[in-house]
Amino acid sequence: MRKASREIISPIEGASFHMTHFKAPVLCHEDYWHFHPEFEIVYVPHGKGKRFIGYKVSRYTGGDLVLLGPNILHNTFNFGFESPASSYEEYVIQFKRDQLETMTKQFPEFTGIAKLLDRAETGIAIGGKAKHRIGSLIKKMNKLPPFPRLMQLFSVLREMSVTADAQDLKARESLPLSTIHSSRIQQVYQIIQTRYQDEVSTRQIAGDLAMTESSFCRFFKQATGKTLKQALMEVRIQKACLLLTGSDLSIASVASHAGFNNISLFNRAFKTLTKSTPQQYRRSMQVNLVVN
User: Fold this and answer.
1) pTM, entire model
2) Alpha carbons 43 and 92: distance in angstroms, whole number
3) Mapping DSSP to helix (H, G, I), strand (E, B) and coil, where does residue 30 land?
4) What's the rounded Cα separation, in Å, for the pair 54 and 241?
5) How many angstroms separate the CA atoms of 147 and 237, rounded?
């Protein structure tokens, strides 16, 4: 499994959010684990496949529609696509939290959307008839100029907020990665995501951030509610979960790839965070993939 990268998202000039439309053969089956501080809507109009979101793997058929919260680790949707690669297509919308929060503070009509975004912190999949009804609104967005496109985004979020066909993907059920509220915390998590296989110390990261070690420890605890050691352990276990689900590596190899040089420590940490052993987790993921 490749290391996760922070994706940099830049809307086009004159637009407040980013939207793209991909069709095969562009990006087909690319293995790209990434995260970003923006919310993300992904609509796959047809086909079946697997989603790799957080440490969860779930299935979809007849196309897919998901809303992901900020900084949820996920792979590209084309990577898990199981229908003919030549038929792959996706629409992606990415927008910032503060933009919508400004609207919800000013206009009570956005209250339902605010609740939707809270739910999306762990990922939401839209199923049933709503999936393609909302998807049709997304498809129309792609050809609109910036202002009508923004109005259409509000309509998409509104429809998502009222549908009964929304399911929580629970991408952070046992391994919550705190929402990143500042550029410094974002930088810390980016360091963890790229160095999780190595020994990462508070002194090293404090130096990267031009802070004293004591100041960094106090800052990180106040901002995230956890120590650097806890955050690093969560990311390592998250990586292990992804390897257990997406590879046939032995448990010892998974532990090593996830940054553990002691199998006993790995087993204890894994059970503490996931409430199951690595073997139990792998078996449960193989037989209990969720179909939406």
Assistant:
1) 0.66
2) 7
3) coil
4) 9
5) 43
Q: Which domain holds residue 120?
A: 5-168
Instruction: Please check the confidence at residue 174 and state whether its pLDDT lies above 50.
Output: no
Alpha helices in 167-260 (DSSP H): 183-195, 202-208, 213-224, 228-246, 251-257
Identity at 56, one-letter amino acid code: K
**Number of structural domains in the chain:** 2
- Residue 85: inside a domain, yes or no? yes
Q: What is the pLDDT of residues 196-227, one digit of tens each?
A: 999 889 999 999 988 899 989 988 887 777 89
Q: Please report which confidence band the pLDDT of residue 172 belongs to, taking 50, 70 and 90 as the band edges.
A: low
What six digits make up the tokens of 91? 């629409």
Strands (E) across the chain are located at 5-6, 18-23, 34-35, 39-44, 49-53, 56-60, 64-68, 89-95, 124-126, 166-168, 290-291
- Sorted by sequence, the CB contacts under 8 Å of residue 62 that are 6+ apart come out as 46, 48, 131
272 in the same domain as 237: yes
Q: Within its chain, how far is the Cα of 102 from the centroid?
A: 23
Q: pLDDT tens digit string along 75-100?
A: 899 988 999 988 999 999 999 988 88
